[in-house]
Amino acid sequence: MKSQGAAAAATAGPEAVTAAGxxxxxxxxxxxxxxxxxxGASGTARQGPARxxxxxxxxxxxxxxxxxxxxxxxxxxxYPFVSTVINSFTDKRQLIEGKYVGLANFxxxxxxxxxxxxxxxxxxxxxxxxxxxxxxxxxxxLLVQKQIPGITFFRSAFYTPVVASIVVVGLIWVWMLDxxxxxxxxxxxxxxxxxxxxSDQWLLLFSAxxxxxxxxxxxxxxIYLAALANVPRELHEAAAVDGAGPVRRFLSVTVPAVRxxxxxxxxxxxxxxxxxxxxxxxxxxxxxxxxGEDTTxxxxxxxxxxxxTGRVGYASAISVVIFVVTxxxxxxxxxxxxxxxx
Amino acid sequence: xxxxxxxxxxPASHVPHVxxxxxxxxxxxxxxxRVRDENGRRMPLxxxxxxxxxxxxxxxxxxxxxxxxxxxxxxxxxxNIFSSPPSFLPSDPTLHNYERVADTIPVWDYALxxxxxxxxxxxxxxxxxxxxxxxxxxxxxxxxxxxxxxxILAMLVPVEGIIIAQFTTMRDLGLNxxxxxxxxxxxxxxxxxxxxxxxxxxxxxxxxxAAFVDGANVWQRFFRIALPAVKGTLAVVAIFAFMGAWxxxxxxxxxxxxxxxxxxxxxxNYLHGTFANDERLxxxxxxxxxxxxIVLFACLQRYFFRGxxxxxxxG
Lengths: 342, 315
Hints:
The complex is a heterodimer. Chain A is mostly helical. In chain A, 73% of the residues lie in helices and 0% in strands. Chain A has a domain at 105-341: Orthogonal Bundle (MetI-like fold), CATH 1.10.3720.10. Chain A is built from 15 helices and no strands. In chain A, helix 5 (113-145) packs antiparallel against helix 12 (259-274). Chain A is globular. Mean pLDDT of chain A is 81; it is low at 1-47. Chain B has two domains: 1-68, no CATH class; 101-314, MetI-like (MetI-like fold). Chain B has 14 helices and no strands. Chain B has helices spanning 9-12, 45-73, 96-104, 107-138, 144-156, 163-172, 179-183, 190-201, 205-213, 218-229, 231-247, 250-255, 264-274, 279-314. Chain B is globular. The interface between A and B is large, with 125 and 130 residues.
């Protein structure tokens, strides 16, 4: 929030100064913010009708300003959220209104193998992808931190996978990892033999995780770069004087200094990883690989809830599990952060 | 290539000595004359070589797959794309695959659909987020805190979890299987509203106060003073709205069923599902989908990077 404030203030700087110079100051320049209503009545020589006009504007215009945003968010985010929770207690289907069935959907989940497969895969995804996305982008940020010639090019190049659609990225890697694709051609050329990246249940899942990490590296690298810029030089200098090598300096100076950023990255990437859909959908296919063993929870929601006979109620119950785990992940990361502090 | 280890780097490098290990950048003087690290220490040659070696290695890993896709898309029907060892450059580059992909699926219509949704998404997000952000940051009214809370809650809702209910809502509105249906759920994103709110909060209040005293009404203050001062954040919102809509996959996949209305990402998925064995064709399709964004990124890098910082802080 600090860096953003600085940026916005910098943008505002010159205009703010000139405009402030030109304008007359209002009565008492009290504390910033929230003075909108009071100014009209603060006795700055404003006469009756004009004042009433301002008053009226102040009542209606805030809602006019906020209305489009509130409407969209209310109708397309919050209402669907609430109805997802409500539907999870019904046997509603697409095109068929449901009735209240209590916890039946959740009880069914407990005996649904596909649900457990989905939960297992989504959880595995978090366990593998999050550590990789906390550590690797930090190392990458250290690599591109120094202002050596051409570094801007490298930074941009490493960010390119972030810009590309997940569909493009997924299809690129489907071809790279194909039985006859580039990776296997190289493996074969060096005599290592072919690997069925896209045919084995586990290799498929781990390949998809690799793709997720590959696409996320550049994004988190930029976050870390901003954090690294704030690490005090003196710390590194002092450590160097004390004879600490690069590895030691990394562990004792850099890591503690960017720790809050690491927590942020862990929080962002764990929530994203648990909700993985596209990579696995594209690489394993809509049915989730051999015997559906690569299905993730969001894939299961999509598969269960859509179509003419889509079981909206049951899919909503899976969604509720996703909500709960997402919140739990956030709390877990924040709690781990606090524990380390103590 | 092994880094030649010469003098012990740390202590010696503080002494200004001249030797072959100082890399100098031709044509520059003074500060940029030598490559130094953040402590003003001259970087030894071995470290430079190590750094560039690693950088080039990562570069190959990050850009290589894109180039391989491009190369595949340019290879003609008679060239073996499965050769081992692989041939990285097309022996006889041709645009034939791009014509074929247009014959197979209406790829240009799909691109146009994506462009329509993305452009509309940019417009609605900029307008909606700026207006709502201004209301949250600057206007004083009963319920402002509640309104802010609504946007914060909306930002926290995991969208992947509510797609089925969104689809049902869209069907009730009669908008499923339309581009409008693709656009609407994200057309004013809560994150963007909060980004704009923060940008407005960071403006010095005195300016608008002065304008208020001079008799400017709320719209005048918004358009003439506040909005021009947050152009940077608005650009970030615009770019990420474009990228978000152009790249989106899950929601269009659910809401669009009619192949005539597909966006590019859904079209590519369809192409892949139907013609999976024609790698040249799929490669050409992906190049068409990714090229506009790479160009946009190359032109507006600054805002892409800035958006990461701002989005991460709020997200």
